[in-house]
Specification:
The radius of gyration is 23 Å and the shape is elongated. Strand 6 and strand 7 form a beta hairpin. The chain has two domains: 82 residues, 434 Repressor (Amino-terminal Domain) (Orthogonal Bundle); 200 residues, Endonuclease, Chain A (2-Layer Sandwich), CATH 3.30.870. Helix 10 packs antiparallel against helix 12. By secondary structure, it is of the alpha/beta class. It is built from twelve helices and seven strands. The longest helix is centred in the C-terminal third of the chain and has 22 residues.
């Protein structure tokens, strides 16, 4: 959790305490407010101390219970302000993966130049339906979220139309390790690698591979997307981060440039993909999944 996010959460907690202490009917104790809301006393305390992130409904109930419903809009704006940068998966996936894909579609639609680094998986913009399907299934299990796999797959496939838009450009860096990560059956991974090889040479796409043997000036770390030098989207297990301040965007730009210096494209990228495809094809035959 970033320091800015935590400070914003603490500030929201202080505002919630202020509303409790200034209730029109008289100051409410934490115990009294907990009883009114049918919450635990510990939840009241954690929210006021910034130790727990309030849900939108929590803020609605708090404003009402403290007799100040007119403050709800302010509270919701505070929450939206700091959550717009750190978007927890728990909240984003409450209605499944499809709404997340729709948000990505809107962002891709307004972006002309996209730079991508992926160290552990194939970029979504190049995924086959089978590869994406297995990813969504596994993430839904991990996050214990609503399972809307087929709708999510359709949403991801819809975004791939931008690959053929002459007004757009995709500069993609992928670690060779991602070509071997079996997040799906070996046979599906072979088809995924065919898909990768097929986009090399597309005039809107530059796909480069960072070989496992390549010297690197920095550790590869997690993946990220740079959208038109105005926004960076990266993710961790707990949340997706949307960074739009100039310093962060510039930093990720330098990271991308540094990783790109270790990457190869064209015929050499083809050879790396073909080598991985051959190894996975043998595995698929051994497993009987070809």
């Amino acid at each position: 959790m970033s320091a800015d996010y935590q400070q914003a959460r603490i500030a929201l907690g202080a505002r919630l305490r202020e509303l409790r202490m200034s209730a029109p009917g008289g100051r409410l104790t934490g115990t009294q407010l907990a009883a009114l809301l049918s919450w635990s006393q510990s939840k009241i305390s954690k929210l006021e101390l910034g130790q727990q992130t309030a849900a939108p409904d929590d803020l609605t109930q708090w404003a009402t219970a403290t007799g100040q419903p007119e403050t709800e809009a302010e509270l919701q704006a505070r929450l939206k302000g700091f959550e717009s940068h750190i978007r927890s998966w728990r909240r984003q996936l409450a209605s499944g993966h499809r709404p997340v894909q729709d948000t990505w579609f809107e962002e891709a639609a307004r972006t002309a130049v996209t730079r991508v680094w992926e160290s552990a998986m194939i970029p979504g913009i190049l995924q086959t339906a089978d590869y994406a399907r297995d990813l969504f299934t596994r993430y839904a299990d991990l996050m214990q979220s609503t399972r809307d796999t087929e709708e999510a797959v359709r949403g991801r496939m819809r975004r791939q139309q931008f690959l053929y838009d002459p007004d757009k450009r995709f500069d993609l860096l992928v670690s060779e390790a991602a070509l071997y990560a079996l997040v799906c059956q070996a046979s599906a991974m072979v088809a995924q690698l065919d898909r990768l090889a097929g986009v090399i040479g597309l005039d809107t796409v530059s796909l480069k591979i960072v070989p496992l043997s390549a010297p690197m000036k920095i550790p590869p770390a997690n993946g990220f997307w740079i959208m038109d030098d105005r926004l960076v989207i990266t993710e961790d297990w707990h949340a997706e981060l949307w960074l739009d301040d100039a310093d962060s965007v510039a930093l990720y730009g330098r990271v991308w440039d540094t990783l790109s210096a270790s990457a190869v494209g064209g015929p050499e990228a083809h050879r790396i993909i073909s080598r991985a495809r051959h190894a996975l094809n043998l595995l698929a035959r051994e497993d009987g999944t070809d």
